[in-house]
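Running this now, will post back.
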Amino acid sequence: MNSLNRSDRQHLPGESLIPIRTVSSLTGINPVTLRAWERRYKLITPMRTPKGHRLYSMADVDLINQVVTLLQGGMSIGQVQQVLTHTPATKANPTATPAPTPIKHHFNLWQNYQQRLLETIRGFDEAALNAVYNEILALYPIDVVTHRLIVPLLRELGWQWQRGHSAGIAEEHFFSVFLRNKLGARLHHLNRQQTGPKLLMACLPGEHHDVGLMLFSMVALDWNYRIIMLGTNMPLEPVHTAAERSHCAAIVLSAARPPEPSVLHQDLPYLLKASARPVFVGGPITQRCHAALLELGVRLLPEDFADALRTINQALKPAH
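Update: finished.
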């Protein structure tokens, strides 16, 4: 008697099955989200061992990647469920990208979430902020949440401050501290579970804002990278030593504002010459100092986190 069972379909004999951690590594979706998609939306129905452990097929992996593509296109998870339920081609071929099913009432998911978060921030209500934040991350991949919600929200808070909103700076600090604490705890927890190459992360000298770097690190963890985080305002001379001792595959530097001339003319050239590993630079500095950075020979990262990680993946591929 087969010890595995599934309510809605059976796998062919001999088909390989993989555990949830492997699925998470292949798709970049954390296990909490995968379980939520199964429990609340019935998007995936894995097989179970007698002890209740979930096992997935490669068809399940293809379906999860399809869900991610639709989410990145701006759909809510509920809309994705409608599309997959009402598209016959999807059931016959899970790898096919379905034509979107018209949604009768247009609903801007991310604008709604941003408004909910803004209300909790304006009330300095950490418990409510935490509840909404956890709800979002339980349902959506971190890179989608970062791109469509967190980065626009940080920009909105910054604009409100610049427009003279009376409590704007306090609201921005409140959310930044909350976000840094949440990301730091999650980074510490997930970092121990990854098995991929190590990336050393640091802000350039003079850069005191590391939330963007931490958000990028969270996405990198979902891509199975391990992170060595050095944080803000990091002198570059010790970065080479830290990368050597920790056996990092690459160095990722970040900044928003242009650094002091000595950083571009002395510190970065020294690091590039001393390091035997790729040095990447991301953040708004890549636009503000584009020509100077290219002339130095650093590798510039795109603004989109997924594209940035693809750039790193490509650079770290073994030469054939």
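The two ends are 47 Å apart (CA to CA). More later if anyone needs it.
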